[in-house]
Every structure is written in structure tokens, then in C-alpha cells.
Automatic annotation (TrEMBL):
GO terms for molecular function: ATP binding; ATP hydrolysis activity. It comes from the Bacteria. SUPFAM superfamilies: P-loop containing nucleoside triphosphate hydrolases. InterPro entries: AAA+_ATPase, ABC_transporter-like_ATP-bd, ABC_transporter-like_CS, ABC_transporter_ATP-binding, P-loop_NTPase. Residues 9-243 form the ABC transporter domain. Keywords: ATP-binding, Nucleotide-binding, Transport. The keyword Nucleotide-binding applies. Coiled coil: none annotated. This is ABC transporter ATP-binding protein. PANTHER family: ABC TRANSPORTER ATP-BINDING PROTEIN (PTHR42711), ABC-TYPE MULTIDRUG TRANSPORT SYSTEM, ATPASE COMPONENT (PTHR42711:SF15). It comes from Novosphingobium umbonatum.
Length: 313
């Protein structure tokens, strides 16, 4: 596409209220989310189960209707210009759904037909090669492994060569080898200029793949930063202390972020390394009448930040 918008995706005050059903009550799945996905990036949308990630993706895909707010894809408003918005995005859904009687090549050709792409402009064979499925071109979809199906879904999402590719939990429940393959595929597409958005609840994946990470929890965005800065938020350090006897009461001090018992006579103290240091922390613990037998320290990682951000209220 020649058109070049400020952001690949722009979302403002997005609200989704699922209507109550017979069995369940209505659910406020998105509570006014705003963010931009910069062009050319791999953008990670991270959050625990039920956070609202798929709801957001399905709104982009046109499969769920938003309640309030504005969304544009590649500069096209999804209400006013749904057709162009849809043409600008390819979506790999969380659930694998295929007609079991079509072969991979037919799946891609049928999708190209739906987009009205003339036969001589289709790239089905190329796409199958890109996802290493050329040798399965004529196999029935039902005979493909889970991993092959997922790769076929990526090819299907790229049939109309959109500038934006969105993958909803591409590596949930897949084995290490397939995860690596999918990462490579995502990186290659991104190198070729495709803006990628992926949702995941694996931190390691977001940390390794993404240029930018947004964390969503209970329908609210709680952080949105370049990956480097998100990792730097881990300005925390943790000391693990083994005491000479079972922990009676946990030590406390204004400089401690958190203090928890992790064993009968073991405690973990989290502190901000800009405010204090391990020596001072140990001094405080000893001043509170405890004897330290052993000590180890570790840096907080993204996992710790994520846990803290999603459990703090
Ligand atoms: P995630 O993908 O982050 O796990 P979802 O977007 O699937 O989260 O779900 C967000 C919340 O909305 C959850 O509480 C979920 O139960 C609820 N939800 C999702 N789909 C529906 C639906 N079709 N009807 C009612 N509630 C839904
Ligand atoms: Mg989901």
C-alpha cells in the first residue's frame, strides 16, 4: 500500500461491553483503552488470560463490534472505511478453524478469491513456501499437524499482502520447535516491512521478539513502553535470606518493596536498587533480631515486573 499513515494501528478510548447472556452477566472486557502501534515494529500485547487481548484483536478483525471508541488501521477508520481497514490487516486468530476438506493451496486460493485478487496476482505458492508447506500443498487440511495448521493460518492472513499482521497467541500450547519456527517467520515478515502485533502471555517471547510491549489487565492498559524501558522498570533487586530459625514475623522497612516467606526459615526481600542495597537490607533484618546464615541476590526480570503490575490494584 502506498498510503502511509502516522501509525499502523490507532486505538482511542476503546470500550467493549459484552451483552449479558441467559447464563452469564454482561462483561466489561475493555474499559477505555488507547494506544498506537508504530509502523514497522513488532508490538507485543501482553496480559494474563481474560485481560481482553482477544476482544481487542477481534474488534480489529471486524468479528466483535466495539461498544465505544475509535479504531483505525493504516489510517482507515474501521466504521467509516471498513473495507480499506480490512485490506490493510491480516489476522491469525487464536482458535484454529479450517474446513477439513480443503487442501492448503485451496485454502489460500479461496481466501484470495474472497478478496477479489485476480488469479495472475495471487501468491499462494510463494506463501506456502514461506511457511514451509510446499510439500503439503495438496494434502487435506485435516491431515496437517497442529503446527502446520498454524503456519497455514499465517499464510492465509498474508494472502492480500497487508502491511499489518496480527497474531493472537500464536505460540500458546505449541512445542519449542514450532515456536522457534513461528518466531523466525514473524521476524522475517517484519524485516520485509510488515508491522506485527502479537498477543502472548509468555514474557520471554515478548522480551525477545518485540520492539515495544503493552501490558493489559482487566480490560485496562497498565503499561506501554519500548521493551528496553519495560525491562529497565525492573529496577528491583531481590535478596533471598536463609535464617538460623523458622521465620516468626517478616522484617519490614520503608525501603523494602516486598517481604515474603519462601520457606520455613527463608525470606525474600524485594527492594529498589536506586534506594538501598543488599548490605543495608541485611543490616535492617539483623537489627530486627534475626540471624542470617546465607544470602543470595538476583535482579528482577520482566516476569517480576509483570507479576507486580498485574497484581497491584
Ligand atoms: P484474553 O484474550 O486476554 O484472554 P478475552 O478478550 O478473551 O481475554 O476476554 C476478556 C473478558 O471478556 C473475559 O472476562 C472473557 O470471559 C470475556 N468474554 C470474552 N468473549 C466473550 C463473549 N463472547 N461474551 C461474554 N464475555 C466474553
Ligand atoms: Mg485470548
Amino acid at each position: 500500500m502506498t498510503h502511509s499513515p502516522a501509525a499502523a494501528i490507532s486505538i482511542r478510548n476503546l470500550v467493549k461491553r459484552y451483552a449479558p447472556t441467559g447464563s452469564g452477566e454482561g462483561k466489561l472486557a475493555l474499559k477505555g483503552v488507547s494506544f498506537d502501534v508504530p509502523q514497522g515494529q513488532i508490538f507485543g500485547l501482553l496480559g494474563p488470560n481474560g485481560a481482553g487481548k482477544s476482544t481487542l484483536i477481534n474488534i480489529l478483525a471486524g468479528m466483535v463490534r466495539k461498544s465505544e471508541g475509535e479504531v483505525s488501521i493504516w489510517g482507515f477508520d474501521i466504521d467509516r472505511d471498513r473495507r480499506n481497514a480490512s485490506r490493510a490487516i491480516g489476522i491469525v486468530p487464536q482458535e484454529i478453524v479450517f474446513d477439513p476438506f480443503f487442501t492448503p493451496i485451496e485454502v489460500l486460493e479461496n481466501t484470495a478469491g474472497l478478496y477479489g485478487i485476480p488469479k495472475d496476482q495471487r501468491i499462494s505458492e510463494q506463501l506456502l513456501a514461506d511457511v514451509h508447506l510446499s510439500d503439503k500443498a495438496q494434502a487435506y487440511a485435516r491431515a496437517l499437524s497442529g503446527g502446520m495448521k498454524r503456519r497455514l493460518l499465517v499464510a492465509k492472513a498474508m494472502v492480500h499482502q497487508p502491511p499489518v499482521l496480527v497474531l493472537d497467541e500464536p505460540t500458546a500450547g505449541v512445542d519449542v520447535e514450532l515456536r522457534r519456527q513461528l518466531w523466525e517467520l514473524v521476524k522475517r515478515l517484519n524485516d520485509e516491512g510488515v508491522t506485527v502485533v502479537l498477543t502472548t502471555h509468555y514474557l520471554e517471547e515478548a522480551e525477545q521478539l518485540c520492539d515495544r510491549i503493552a501490558i493489559i489487565n482487566h480490560g485496562e492498559m497498565i503499561a506501554n513502553k519500548p521493551t528496553r524501558e519495560m525491562v529497565d522498570m525492573a529496577r528491583e533487586k531481590i535478596v533471598v535470606l536463609t535464617l538460623d530459625k523458622p521465620v516468626q514475623s517478616l522484617p519490614s522497612h520503608p525501603a523494602f518493596i516486598k517481604s515474603v516467606a519462601t520457606g520455613a526459615s527463608q525470606i525474600e526481600i524485594t527492594y529498589n536498587k536506586d534506594r538501598t542495597n543488599a548490605g543495608e537490607v541485611m543490616g535492617q533484618v539483623q537489627a530486627q533480631g534475626m540471624t542470617i546464615l546465607d544470602v543470595t541476590t538476583r535482579e528482577a526480570d520482566l516476569e517480576d515486573v509483570f507479576v507486580r503490575l498485574t497484581t497491584e490494584v
